[in-house]
Design a protein that fits this description.
single chain; mainly beta; seven-stranded mixed beta sheet; four-stranded antiparallel beta sheet; 0% helix
């Protein structure tokens, strides 16, 4: 299993970013996928999750209405559209999957929101 995030960067408050997670080594379309984030000095937290067919999603209260998770099973890719970014969204963002009870993480992509 390999997960590779991309799309992070430095933006100003109110701007947008779109993160991508390219997955390989497993049957992507069969698994629930998630985005997590970890800010300096804080525990890793769930941001959003999406069912295998994309029909069900869930979000942390802190991002509800601003972030949208989606997936393209034909391209083995998961996306996180982040709008109206706030300084408190600054963190390393990770994609995550559990396959056969094993936990897999990407290397993470840094998102910094600062004026």
């Amino acid at each position: 299993v390999q997960l590779a995030e991309s799309g992070g960067g430095l933006v100003q408050p109110g701007e947008s970013l779109r993160l991508s997670c390219a997955a390989s080594g497993f049957t992507f379309s069969s698994y629930y996928m998630s985005w997590y984030r970890q800010a300096p000095g804080r525990e890793r937290e769930l941001v959003a999750g999406i069912s295998s067919d994309g029909g069900h999603t869930n979000y942390a209260n802190s991002v509800l209405g601003r972030f949208t998770i989606s997936r393209d099973n034909g391209k083995n890719t998961m996306l996180l559209q982040m709008n109206n970014l706030k300084p408190e969204d600054t963190a390393v963002y990770y994609c995550y999957v559990s396959v056969l009870l094993r936990h897999f993480w990407g290397q993470g992509t840094q998102v910094t929101v600062s004026s």
